[in-house]
Amino acid sequence: MNIFYDENMPFAAEFFADLGQLTAFSGRSLSPTAICDADVLLVRSITKVNEALLKENKNLRFVGTATIGVDHIDQPYLSDRNVNFHSAPGCNAVSVAEYVLSALVVLAERYLISLSSLTVGIVGAGNTGSRLSEKLSALNIKHVLCDPLLADNPADKREFVPLEQALNCDVVSLHVPLTRKGKHATYHLLNAERLAQFNDNQILINACRGEVIDNAALLKMKQQGHPLKLVLDVWENEPNILSALISYCEITTAHIAGYSLEGKARGTEILYRALCEQLDILPNKRLADFLPAPAIGKVEIKQAFDEILLNQLVKMVYDVRRDDAIFRQQINVQGFDHIRKTYPTRREFSSITVKLNNGLSSDAPHQLGFNK
Ligand SMILES: NC(=O)c1ccc[n+]([C@@H]2O[C@H](COP(=O)([O-])OP(=O)(O)OC[C@H]3O[C@@H](n4cnc5c(N)ncnc54)[C@H](O)[C@@H]3O)[C@@H](O)[C@H]2O)c1
Ligand SMILES: O=C(O)[C@H](O)[C@H](O)COP(=O)(O)O
């Protein structure tokens, strides 16, 4: 069995070696002839999987994307060809939530804002939005959820607000898939008209898909002097982004919100399990067998919690300013894809054990995701 996989899938060789002949490829430049004899194709979001890519291939049985987003996959085409398709729902949702939290901590310190004074509007309450909601709850940060599709689902008991209410919050964080059709299509969900409603003190965070915000309209608004604070991880038309926007961003990164080692590697593991199931093989490998020990393994807390201490904990694991600095320094030299390919290791809160030796029963660090 010929298994072709994106070179940016951590532990792919370790997971898949026993299942077939492995070939790694560079996701942006994959050609139809390169994969003409693939039985299994494992991609990430930069590879568009459609008729144009697969026209030379007659053998394909399985396509997997080690990502949450699926807007790069022509699923009806795969289904017409009877090729099984799997994505990796939720794989890097914790990583996205930790990115947003780190951005909030950094901005709160930069502008002397207390996080507990803010209300966050989470637009899209699936995996990434829900993980963010849990972490905000752990820090007692007020937030509302907007998700008209889940609001219509009687099984989901959470309270939802209309979009306009979420967009009015001090912080607006976007967590929707990119969709172009239907009543709740998200392409340019934030168009010029909605952007114009933002007030001077708001923070807008986009760590879902660039096309959810009309980037040209956003640039125009910033060029006209709107003080909206921007955190942009994703861009329209990656990797050829609207670079004039960069200088208007408080925090800006190269689509790496989901790039914790655990988040990326969970995507590989989910596809490994899905392929094993298709092949009727019992999976015998687990991600825990491959993850290295983190640089910092254990922390002991010896004083009562306050916002400063919790913010320190967040930044100790992941300070988004590192990725912002790399982006600003390298975007015009090495380019968008290079920054992503050479992403330095980042671990999730769960890689660190936090021991409480402060006489308090408060469990905030563990609710935030740190290991007990
Ligand atoms: N920046 C990154 O590194 C990164 C990482 C992971 C995911 N993503 C992107 O984030 C998206 C969301 O991820 P997820 O795991 O939360 O997906 P998910 O499918 O679990 O949840 C998405 C939610 O958005 C809701 N939704 C759809 N249209 C909406 C609309 N118009 N208004 C409000 N809500 C709407 C859906 O009902 C769903 O509950 C992914 O599709 C992917 O494109 C980006
Ligand atoms: O949809 C996702 O899971 C994320 O956007 C993911 O982090 C994208 O990473 P890529 O596949 O482009 O490496």
Mind explaining what this structure looks like?
With 372 residues, the chain is of the alpha/beta class. The protein folds into 3 domains: 2-87 and 260-289, NAD(P)-binding Rossmann-like Domain (Rossmann fold), CATH 3.40.50; 93-252, 3-Layer(aba) Sandwich (Rossmann fold), CATH 3.40.50.720; 298-368, Ribosomal Protein S8, Chain: A, domain 1 (2-Layer Sandwich). The mean pLDDT is 96. The chain starts with a strand and ends with a helix. Helices cover 31% and strands 14% of the residues. The protein contains 14 helices and 13 strands. The protein has a 6-stranded parallel sheet. It has helices at residues 12-16, 51-54, 75-80, 93-110, 127-138, 148-151, 163-166, 192-195, 215-223, 261-279, 307-317, 321-330, 336-341, 364-368, and strands at residues 2-6, 21-25, 40-43, 62-65, 84-86, 119-123, 142-146, 171-174, 203-206, 229-232, 251-252, 298-301, 353-356. Bound molecules: nicotinamide-adenine-dinucleotide and 4-phospho-D-erythronate. Nicotinamide-adenine-dinucleotide is lined by residues 68-69, 90, 92-93, 96, 123-129, 146-150, 175-178, 184, 186, 189, 207-209, 233-234, 255, 257-258.
Tally of domains: 3
CATH superfamily name of the largest domain?
Answer: NAD(P)-binding Rossmann-like Domain
CATH class of the largest domain: Alpha Beta
State the end-to-end CA separation. 42 Å
Topology as H/E string?
EHEEHEHEHEHEHHEHEHEEHEHHHEH
What is the alpha-carbon Rg in Å?
21 Å
Strand order of the largest sheet: 7-6-8-9-10-11
**Continuous helix count:** 14
The parts where pLDDT drops under 50 for at least 5 residues are none
* Arithmetic mean pLDDT: 96
- Please identify, by name, the CATH architecture of the largest domain: 3-Layer(aba) Sandwich
Which ligands accompany this protein? nicotinamide-adenine-dinucleotide, 4-phospho-D-erythronate
- Fraction of residues in β-strands: 5-15%
> Tell me about the biggest sheet?
6 strands, parallel
The helix fraction, in percent, is 25-40%
Pathway: Cofactor biosynthesis; pyridoxine 5'-phosphate biosynthesis; pyridoxine 5'-phosphate from D-erythrose 4-phosphate: step 2/5
Function: Catalyzes the oxidation of erythronate-4-phosphate to 3-hydroxy-2-oxo-4-phosphonooxybutanoate.
Keywords: Cytoplasm, NAD, Oxidoreductase, Pyridoxine biosynthesis
Active site: 209, 238, 255
